[in-house]
Amino acid sequence: MGPAGDGHHEHGLNLSLWVKGELFTFGTVAGTPHPRLGFSNIRKMVTYCKNKGTQGFPSVQYSIWKHIACNKLQLTEEIAWMYFEQYHMVAGELSASERLEMFHLSSQSDRSSTKQKMKADTLQFVLFLYIQQLHKISIKSSLVTGDEWPSRTRSPDLESARTATSGKNLDENSHFTFVMHHLNDLMELIIDPAGSALTDANASIEAIRALGFVIAASIDGNRTLTPLEKVAMHPSVAPHSGYNKDSQTFLFKALHSWFRSNLTQSPFGISSCIGNGKRLSWLPIDTTTATKRGKIGTNGHLVSREFVKGNKIIIMTQVGKQMVARSSGTLEQAYIKIHRCQYSYFYLLSPLRSVSIEKCKNITVVLGPVEVAIMISGCENITVIAPCGRIVIGNSSLCTLNLLTPCRPLLLPGCEAISLGPYNTFYPKLEDHMKKVMIPATINLWDQPVMAGHDTHGESSSTWFLLPPTDFAQFIIPFEMEGKTTSIPFPLPSAYKKALDVKNKEYKQWLKSVNESTQDVEKKQSFQALVEQQFQEWLAETGHKKEIDAIVQHIDGKFKFDSKR
What we know:
- The chain is α/β, with parallel strands linked by helices.
- 35% of the residues lie in helices and 16% in strands.
- The chain is elongated.
C-alpha cells in the first residue's frame, strides 16, 4: 500500500499528480546551463524537428539533434552526446539490447552511421532539455525571494523541510516549485497552437503522454501508477482537464488549471521518506565511543513492487566512524542517498538504481552495479569503487574513483584533484548483479572524462588525473557470499595489470625470503611477533583498526549479509 498522500478525490478517484524526482535529481546537470539552451531555442527545435519528417518527429535522430546542438546552440559534440545519452539513462525507453548498443556507440565517432540513427522521443527530449534550467541562477529571483547565492559549503540539512535554493542541494521541494513556476513553458513546448492564442489552443493526447515523462499520476492513493494521459481522459476527470472525446484533444486553459490544482510534491521523495519512512537497524551499537549514531531509513515498505524504480529510497545520514555492510532485497533497485557521513566504510553489494553522495568526508563506498548514475557533490577525500551507468562529480576534492562505466565520467565545476582509476574489486554475485541492471563488462570509459561547465581547458590539469599504475592495488571485499564471479570481470589496462603483477611478485618473494631466512623456530616466532607488533601499530596510526574490528563483527555473524531483508 502506498503512503497517504495529499490526493484529491474526484468522483470516487483518489487522484494524485506529482513531479518525478529521479528525472530532476539524475537527469539534470548541476551548474548553470548553456545560455543558448533556453525556452526560445528549444521551442524552435520542436518546429525544426517537425519539418525534418520522420527523422525529427515523433522521434528525433541523434544526427538531427547533433546538428541543432553544435550548429545552432554552439554546444560541443561531446556535450551534445552527453545530453542524448543522459536522457536515455533516465527515460528507460531502451530495451536491454538497445541500451547495450548505446554504450558501445559512446566510444565511437559521432560520424558512425549507427550512432547518427539513434532516436529519442522528440517531445520528451525537449522537456528533458528544458528542465536543465533547474540549476539556472536568477539574480532577480534571488533579490525578490531572499535566496542566497550558491555556496560550496552551505546547503540545507537533510532534515530541513524548507525549499532548497538555486545552486544548492536540490530536492523534491525545488522540483515541484520549478514545475509550478514553469508549467506554462513546459506545456507550450509540446503544444502546437496552430495559429490560435495559446489559451485557446488544444493539446493532443501525445502531448499529455510526453508530459507524463515529468509528471506521475495515480488514481488509487499511490498504490499503482496510471499513465498521465489516461488519468486526464478518465470520464470523471475529463470535465476538469478539458478533454474533448470527439476531437480527442485537451483545451490548454482547462488542462493548465487542472495541473495547477492537483500537482503536489512527490509522495516518494526525501522529505516523505523522512516523515513516513522506516528506520533500518543496519548500524552496530558502539558503546566504546561517544560518537553520535547515524540514521538509516527507507520508504521501501511504502512503494509497490510495480514502481520501485526511481521511487524506493534509502537514506544514510551522519554515519560516523562506522561500517555499513549489506547485500539485501531492501537495497535492490533503490535510490541510495549517503549524506553528511565521515570516517566510515560502506559496502552496499546489491544491484542499485541510483546513488547520491553528498557532503561526505573521509569515507570509502563500495557499491554493487548502479543502473542510472552516481552523483557526488560537496565531498572531500572519499573513495568510490563501483560499476555504474554514469558517474557525475562536482564541488569535490581529493576523491578517488575506481570505475567500470560504459559512459564517460562527467566532471562539473568545483572539482579538484579527482583521481580516476579502473575498477579494482569483485564479489561473487557481481556479474549476476551487472546483468540485472544492464551494465556491460565489455566497455569501460573510466579514463575519458567530460568537462562540463568549465570555462578553460587548462583547468583539467588540476581538476583530474589518472591514478598512477604504481599506486594501483586490488581492493579486497572481506565478506563471503555465494556466487560465480571469481575475478575482476573487466580486463585491467596493461599498465595497471603489470603494476599489480609486480606487487604480487614482490610479496611472494618477501614471503619466500622470510621462510628461508632461518630454520630456528624460536627466531621465526620472534620475527613473527615483531611483524605483528608493527602491523598493530600501523593499524592504530592509520585508523584502520576500527575498520578491521567492524569487519570482524560482520564475519562473526552479528551483522552478516542477508539476501532477503
